[in-house]
Design goal:
Layout (H helix, E strand, L loop, with lengths): L7 H14 L6 E6 L7 H5 L3 E6 L4 E5 L5 H19 L5 H24 L4
Antiparallel strand pairs: 1-2, 2-3
Helix pairs in contact: 1-3
Amino acid sequence: MAGFAVSEEKNRKLTESMEALGIREGDIEEKFVRSSGKGGQHVNKTSTCVYLKHLPTGIEVKCMMDRSQSVNRFLARRQLVNRAARFMGMPAPDDIKIEKIRKQKAKKRKRASDKYGEDQ
């Protein structure tokens, strides 16, 4: 896999997570389409939106978060890894972050109710 326009560490982590889930570059169908949204003339002239389809599982991802095609290719693969992990019944990295935030909020809520009473 070629490196994308992100740091080497992010490229390495993406490669490791793809290998851990058994996702190969050869199993991914990649298309580029025109984006929409912010970006003005640049977005209207170039095909920066990335569409990925993982052929063995049928998972499809479309990413147009950035004006750069290379960054969108990276982000689309990261989304594909998250969806594939959920599809295989494993916790996705995003799920772990969300669960951590949920626990922090519950802890804050409990502290506030202990300090100010149950009417909050």
